[in-house]
């Protein structure tokens, strides 16, 4: 089955700096890679996702890059703010049976991001 | 609009008891997922429904765990003979197609 490794486990930055979180996956059939932000006591919130036919996607201060050959993808947050402090999870999913878009996500272990004012 | 809701938000039960956890998905979402999250870990898949049927239940740890979605909307996760190791946050997500949107979770504590 799929295995997703995430690094680093903790990341501390100063406000305004950039933060980068990296993930690798094992199943070459995986083709959908979402990122989630989880605040204390809340459920994971989808912040950005990328599909395997795209190498990079950007949404304001966040961007995700994907290298299918190397089987790794990364989350980049620029101009970090204290409210970006949370746990971030990457995930991967293979195409479902019959080419459907449904199916289980396999998550990384999470990165605790702390942005110091 | 309304997001995924889960009830109860917290559940404390004694070892050996039966519990039911409820998930109300976003209206119109055909797929519904259950995950379990232990402290300091990422969510782990349990089961997912496409409509009323379980499309993949490969993540259920054993036969004490069961889930239903009888009318293709609300789902209930049922755990029999609870054990201390079942203590975790149980997350539900619903999906219109590819993206999965999570609820706040139910924190289950088995004493």
Short structural summary:
Chain A has no helices and eleven strands.
Q: From the helix content, strand content and strand pairing of chain A, which structural class follows?
A: mainly beta
What summary fits the major beta sheet of chain A?
A: 6 strands, mixed
Continuous helix count of chain B: 0
- Counting DSSP E segments of at least 2 residues, the number of strands of chain B comes to 11
Helix % of chain A is under 10%
Order of helices and strands of chain B: EEEEEEEEEEE
Structural class of chain B: mainly beta
Order of helices and strands of chain A: EEEEEEEEEEE
- What does the radius of gyration of chain A come to? 14 Å
Terminal Cα separation of chain B, in Å? Answer: 37 Å
- The gross shape of chain B turns out to be globular
The share of residues in extended strands of chain A comes to: over 45%
Average predicted local confidence, pLDDT of chain A? 93
- Binned strand content of chain B: over 45%
User: How would a textbook summarize the main sheet of chain B?
Assistant: 7 strands, mixed
- The average pLDDT score of chain B comes to 96
Oligomer: heterodimer
Shape descriptor of chain A reads globular
Low-confidence stretches of chain A: none
- From the N-terminal CA to the C-terminal CA of chain A, the straight-line distance is 41 Å
